[in-house]
Amino acid sequence: MAKRKKPDPPKFKVGDWVTYPLRPDRMHAKVTEVRGPLAPRGEQVYRIRWVWDWGEVHEFETVESALEPATAPEHQPVPLPQESWAQWPR
Asked: Is 41 inside any structural domain?
């Protein structure tokens, strides 16, 4: 039986800033969870979060190969309180 290759350690940790390809540019995002080597061939999966300029929060999972290390952005939008958008549209 073939031996399994030990997965590489995660490249990023919780709290690291990364960039994610989002047309036409790359979005700054923050790593909120390291899910582990769940992708094909043991690639690391991360949960990332970014905030649009108008305050809408997006959070989803992606593979390590889609991310690049980054520094914290100069302008960080403030997330809107959930009650301000939870009932939209009225």
From this structure: yes
